[in-house]
Design goal:
Blueprint (H helix, E strand, L loop, with lengths): L2 H5 L2 H10 L7 E2 L9 E2 L26 H13 L20 E2 L6 E2 L4 E17 L12 E17 L4 E16 L11 E6 L3 E10 L7 E9 L15 E12 L2 E12 L4 E14 L4 E10 L2 E13 L2 E10 L8 E9 L1
Antiparallel strand pairs: 1-2, 3-4, 5-6, 5-17, 6-7, 7-8, 7-9, 9-10, 10-11, 11-12, 12-13, 13-14, 14-15, 15-16, 16-17
Length: 342
């Protein structure tokens, strides 16, 4: 699916939002994945009660008494966890009060399980490699085209309002490294491998929540498991550990998150700079949300643009693509997936 196919409906949605504006704000039902209901400002509500009156089940159930109907409604509202409206905390309107996961613009609440199934393609025309690292006799560094196809699964669970755990695994990876024109080793023209890719887990803890003046502070610790001892191009052969912090603050024009982390591998036995970056999240409507980010890992930096569309209250489609900003970063890395909330 091309990005323009996703962005195409946005002007119509924003036009409809303005056309059906209202004098008084009404409750905006949001999903468990994106946050609790918020109070939308005039002109931003898609369905105005003056034009679209609320559904009255008494028209279809004439034998139900008004008291029973009211009791059913009250019970349904009571079953929704956290009924606070974000009018009192507008800085959470873009993201809700969940714990930020390692996925772009994705948050998990207490007792909530997120499952994300996705496919990612990565292309790098100038990927660095050493033939010796692939099992061939040459320690010289070369650059040539590298491609990867990955089918991944991600799961996150909110243990408390501040503590969450997650697991991500490339259940199937196919990677191919082309041989550079100046490479005279015995490496074939295209060296390929397939199998289980990187598998890692994280623990994420929010030290304190955001307030009107104070940003949110979250720290994380992760481990990448050495599941591929015999593979050279895919997976991980040594234990790898990551740790870092996220600082998040919401504003009327969007929510920003800044992160920085460290990386340690038992193979190289040295501590290095890990992932770093900045993320921007903006809710466009009840169903659409935009995420933009610049993310780096040492000297590989890329820009990411993501659009999220809520199909149902517990199902969200995520489409994004990364674009390399430095020579060592992949120049093109699209991703498509479906996020489920339980």
């Amino acid at each position: 699916m091309k990005i323009r196919h996703v962005l195409g409906p946005l002007p119509l949605i924003l036009f409809a939002s303005t056309a059906f504006g209202q004098d008084e704000p009404i409750r905006n039902p949001l999903t468990l994945t994106w946050g609790e209901p918020i109070e939308k400002k005039p002109g931003l509500t898609l369905l105005d009660e003056k034009w679209f009156p609320p559904f009255d089940d008494k028209l279809f159930l004439p034998f139900r008494g008004p008291g029973e109907s009211a009791a059913k409604t009250a019970m349904a509202q009571a079953l929704v966890p956290g009924t606070e409206e974000w009018k009192s905390r507008p800085y959470l309107a873009d993201r809700g009060d969940g714990v930020h996961t390692s996925l772009f613009g994705t948050y998990v609440r207490k007792n909530e399980l997120l499952v994300y199934l996705f496919y990612e393609y990565t292309r790098n025309r100038d990927a660095e490699y050493k033939p010796s690292e692939l099992g061939f006799a040459s320690d010289q560094e070369f650059r040539a085209k590298k491609e990867e196809h990955e089918f991944l699964i991600f799961a996150a669970y909110g243990i408390t309002n501040s503590l969450a755990v997650e697991l991500e695994s490339a259940v199937f990876t196919q990677a191919s490294q082309s041989r550079a024109s100046g490479d005279t080793s015995a490496m074939p023209r295209t060296f390929s491998e397939s199998g289980v890719g990187d598998t890692e887990g994280q623990i994420r803890y929010r030290w304190f929540e955001e307030t009107e003046v104070r940003p949110e502070l979250l720290s994380y610790f992760g481990v990448v498991f050495p599941l591929q001892h015999n593979k050279k191009l895919i997976g991980t052969r040594d234990w790898e550990f990551t740790a870092g912090v996220n600082v998040t603050k919401g504003f009327s024009f969007g929510t920003f998150m800044v992160k920085i982390g460290g990386f340690y591998s038992t193979g190289e036995e040295k501590l290095e700079l890990g992932e770093y970056g900045i993320e921007y999240v903006k809710r466009l409507s009840d169903k659409w949300r935009l995420v933009g980010a610049v993310e780096g890992d040492q000297d590989e930096v890329q820009a990411i643009l993501e659009i999220q569309y809520q199909v149902r209250p517990n199902i969200t489609i995520k489409l994004n693509s990364g674009f390399g900003l430095t020579s060592k970063a992949p120049e093109f890395a699209p991703e498509v997936g479906v996020l489920f909330s339980f």
